[in-house]
Specification:
By secondary structure, this protein is of the alpha+beta class. Helix content is about 45%, strand content about 20%. The protein contains 19 helices and 19 strands. About 25% of the residues are buried.
């Protein structure tokens, strides 16, 4: 209230209270107080006198219009001419009341407040409309730039199952125009005019709608005969969205239809290729088995006649059948030399065949590497001295023993040292060392280094392949069969070790292999080697592999080896395939078997084992025998070698 006369202010308040208008007021007289209270008191309406000693109503109105243009402003004055009244109203005043007619003040106040509220509501409505139009425009642009541009058919569905909106993919699929899709149902949109009661889409939509009522999503893949496409359909609930007015939006669910025709056709082609590849792999495995069997049989069968020929030649050379001249002795010696070479080749082929088939026999024990290396050095002394080669051996003082087959490891070192002597020139040097390989101390590394011709970098991995020879060696008299390093690698890996080569041309080569440290227990390294080999083969060929554990036990008595021999024979009968492997684990009374069988085939074998043991029980021990079987299959039950082993053991113990 801008009024310099306190009595006039009281009269105005009296009239308002008499009209039962509730209010709180504050009276000011100066411009400074007026401007301050506009912000601090924040009035809903201003009553102002027209003339004040230092301020007047028109100036107050102008100040109010600038700061608060929607504020109701009523002039209350003693006298005001018609022209002044018009000027005041044009300037923005809500009304004017003469002091001698204050009974009109309550009506003017109420009307001014109502008009101000109306202006504010209209202003807010215009603002809301502008915002809504902006939101609609933005939503339209976003829909066009996102939903309309994606390659899937998108449908928004209301709570009655009718389509609210679709994207433009409907037009690309020749299912009609976007504007005509509203109000249709999904089945009507995708299968217009379909009256087939057994239509998959009707069944799927009925199920999906029921799931939506429970807040669950649905998806399915179908070969649609009407559209002529493979479809992947997803139905998802849309959580209730609240608008600014507190109302839920109409969207109830979204249906996304993917055209997976190309992907499905590609998958079908891949399946065909995979089947063809599987058949080819099976044929290759069959041929490989035939080759290995032929090599083994041929090598074995050739050894006997070669031994006979060798003995005959030796008898001739020893002149036990009569005298021979110098020329005859020369040719007989040459024949003996070539027979020895051929015998070595046959022995190598036999060794390689056994390694590849996993049937190599290993007799593990604690092996002192120092003793073995000293034996190797002394064995090659004549060859070393003949080429004036200096040979050094360095073995750490406290080097632990390794867990290995002594004869096989000597064979490995003989091969490596023999190669080093072969490729080291006259007066060269060879060094042999053995030391712990890793921080855990569970492996020992043995290295053989020479000062020979070296190996090209691109040949370092290939030197361990069968029949591979480095080109430089082929131009020299140092060439061999190309089987030695392949056998060496197989023997090292059979001990769960690794082997590799390092070399520089003209600087020599270093061959290093690792062996496990002996820790006093009998670890089944042969089993681990064969499991590694068979599992790797299964992964590469995308084939199945089943691991069996069969345990025999008695109550209070030790199981005799003869009983295990019987069990092993019966197990081999149940497996049936030549490629299946049966092993005895360490000192324990457990047999293991590895066979190429899927889960269903493994269950058949398991049933066959139970039937064989029931019909033909193992004989030779008076007390009753308990036989347990555990098995696991890759990839159905286990995806890793460790998991395959663990699950088979768990089923055995369970």
């Amino acid at each position: 209230m801008l009024e310099d006369a306190a009595t006039d202010a009281e009269l105005m308040e009296h009239e308002l209270r008499r009209a039962k208008i509730s209010f709180t007021s504050k009276r000011v007289e100066t411009r400074e107080d007026f401007v301050r209270e506009l912000y601090e008191f924040a009035p809903d309406l201003i009553l102002s006198d027209y003339r004040l000693p230092s301020f007047d109503g028109l100036k107050a109105l102008d100040t109010t219009q600038k700061e608060f243009p929607d504020m109701p402003f009523i002039l209350v004055t003693g006298a005001l001419g018609e022209e002044k009244a018009i000027e005041v109203l044009k300037s923005g005043a809500s009304d004017y009341v003469l002091k001698d007619n204050l009974s009109r003040l309550p009506h003017a106040v109420l009307r001014a407040i109502r008009e101000a509220e109306g202006r504010r509501e209209r202003k807010q409505a215009r603002k809301d409309l502008e915002e809504s139009l902006m939101v609609i425009g933005r939503a339209k642009r976003e829909w066009e730039s996102t939903v309309d541009s994606i390659p899937q058919l998108i449908c928004l569905i209301d709570s009655e199952g009718y389509i609210l909106r679709t994207n433009r993919m409907i037009e690309q699929w020749n299912l009609g125009q976007v504007v005509n899709s509203k109000g249709k149902k999904i089945h009507e949109l995708l299968h217009p005019g379909c009256a087939d009661s057994s239509c998959y889409l009707k069944t799927f939509w009925s199920h999906a709608w029921e799931e939506l009522r429970h807040g669950r999503s649905t998806e399915g893949e179908f070969n649609d005969p009407v559209i002529g496409r493979y479809l992947y359909i997803q139905v998802r609930e849309i959580l209730p969205k609240i608008s600014r007015k507190g109302e839920e939006t109409a969207s109830y669910a979204v249906v996304v239809v993917h055209d997976i025709t190309e992907r499905k056709q590609a998958i079908d082609r891949l399946k065909e290729y995979a089947n063809e590849l599987e058949m080819a792999n099976k044929e290759l495995r069959r041929l490989d088995e035939i080759k290995s069997e032929f090599v083994a049989v041929a090598s074995h069968e050739l050894r006997t006649p070669l031994a006979t020929i060798k003995n005959a030649i030796q008898l001739l050379l020893q002149r036990k059948t009569g005298d021979i001249n110098e020329n005859q002795e020369k040719f007989l010696s040459l024949a003996e030399k070539n027979i020895n070479r051929l015998t070595n080749i046959l022995n190598s082929l036999l060794d390689l065949s056994k390694i590849e088939s996993g049937r190599i026999e290993l007799n593990f024990e604690e092996v002192n590497l120092r003793d073995s290396l000293e034996f190797i050095v002394s064995s090659f002394k004549p060859q070393v001295d003949g080429k004036s080669i200096q040979i050094e051996m360095e073995v750490e003082k406290d080097l632990p023993s390794v867990y290995a087959d002594r004869e096989k490891i000597i064979q490995v070192m003989m091969n490596l040292v023999g190669n080093a002597i072969k490729f080291t020139p006259q007066g060269g040097m060879i060094s042999i060392s053995a030391k712990p390989y890793n921080e855990d101390g569970n492996m020992v590394a043995v290295s053989v280094r020479d000062s020979g011709i070296g190996i090209p970098e691109d040949q370092l991995e290939k030197v361990f392949e069968k029949f591979h020879q480095v080109e430089e060696s082929l131009r020299r008299s140092t060439g061999g069969t190309g089987l030695g390093l392949a056998i060496t690698k197989g023997l090292v890996e059979a001990h769960q070790g690794k082997i590799w080569a390092e070399s520089e041309i003209g600087e020599g080569s270093t061959f290093t292999f690792t062996l496990p440290v002996s820790k006093g227990e009998k670890r089944d390294l042969r089993f681990r080697y064969i499991l590694d080999k068979e599992f790797q083969r299964a992964m590469e060929n995308h084939s199945h592999l089943t691991l069996f554990f069969i345990e025999m036990s008695t109550e209070g008595a030790e199981v005799k080896d003869t009983l295990l021999d019987q069990l092993e024979e019966k197990l081999k009968q149940c497996l049936g395939r030549k490629t299946d492997v049966v092993l005895r684990l360490g000192r324990g009374k457990i047999l293991s078997a590895l066979c190429e069988a899927d889960l269903e085939g493994a269950r058949v074998i398991r049933q066959r084992i139970d039937e064989v043991l029931q019909k033909h029980p193992i004989e030779g021990q008076d007390i009753s025998l308990i036989t347990k079987v555990g098995m696991a299959t890759y990839p159905e039950e286990a995806l890793s070698k460790r998991e395959l082993f663990r699950k088979a053991k768990e089923y055995l113990r369970g």
